[in-house]
Amino acid sequence: MGFGDLKSAAGLRVLNDFLADKSYIEGYVPSQADIAVFEAIAAPPPADLFHALRWYNHIKSYEKQKASLPGVKKALGKYGPADVEDTTGGATDSKDDDDIDLFGSDDEEESEEAKKLREERLAQYESKKSKKPAVVAKSSILLDVKPWDDETDMAKLEECVRSIQADGLVWGSSKLVPVGYGIKKLQIQCVVEDDKVGTDMLEERITAFEDYVQSMDVAAFNKI
User: Fold this and answer.
1) Is the pLDDT of residue 88 over 60?
2) CA angle 143-16-27, nearest 5°?
3) What is the spatial distance between Cα 206 and Cα 162, in angstroms, rounded to a whole number?
4) Secondary structure letter of residue 38 according to DSSP
5) Confidence band, pLDDT 50/70/90 cuts, at residue 112
6) What pLDDT does residue 119 have?
7) CATH class of 138-223
8) Is the pLDDT of residue 215 over 60?
9) What is the 3-state secondary structure (H, E, C) of 111-131?
10) pLDDT-based confidence at 108, cuts 50/70/90?
11) Which of 6, 45, 173, 192 minimizes the number of CB atoms within 10 Å of its CB?
12) Domain ranges of the chain
């Protein structure tokens, strides 16, 4: 699998096609997967590859936060469509932690005692690794939900927003903030599990209440 050479026009076209129905390389939030692919690109994609260019400009905005994004950066060949051959060489130059022989011997032959000790240590390592609790990545998001005009029923608008329920989504406090001409926007907090809920999904669900909602923007996004 892989995008191929992302410094070439062919590689960028593969990336553009891959992002036609995706916001990120993996999952629903920016991660180390996006940083790995972003850093493999020599320059912004051309304007005709608009899916890739949109993604490139979005990930570029995380330049100062890239070290704090979730996930573990892998070889470039680990990302992308499965039917494209990886020509970057990254897939063979890097190894996953699970592939590293922590207790390997440099000798071609090893004694039965050394072999047994190595296998015991490997078993202990695998057992310890399997017992590690899974870390659930979460984010706190502040949303601005704007009505059509000053006659919009803001109580009903908030009721609609809070009616959205999803695994990994918890609504928090809210307030109405004046924006001018008697119009107020709803500013509402929520906490999401990154692997389950993304801003794209929230925007789609919230703007579906088109009788009340004109638009939704992310006012603040912080990792927890």
Assistant:
1) no
2) 45
3) 9
4) H
5) confident
6) 82
7) alpha beta
8) yes
9) CHHHHHHHHHHHHHHHHHHHC
10) very low
11) 173
12) 9-78, 138-223
What CA–CA distances, in Å, run from 220 to 46, 83, 144, 165, 217?
Answer: 30, 37, 9, 21, 9
Rounded to whole angstroms, how far apart are CA atoms 206 and 137? 23
Tokens of 132: 């590690």
Query: Does the structure show a pLDDT above 70 at 124?
Result: yes
Token pair listed for 85: 């051959």
Per-chain mean pLDDT for the chain: 84
Task: Tell me the C-alpha distance between 120 and 111, whole Å.
Answer: 14
Task: Classify 65 as helix, strand or coil.
Answer: helix
Residue 46's SS3 state is: coil
Backbone angles phi, psi at 185, to 5 degrees: -105, 155
pLDDT in tens, 50-82: 999 999 999 999 888 888 889 888 888 888 887
- Length of the chain equals 224
Rg (CA), the chain: 23
List the structure tokens of 35. Answer: 């940083």
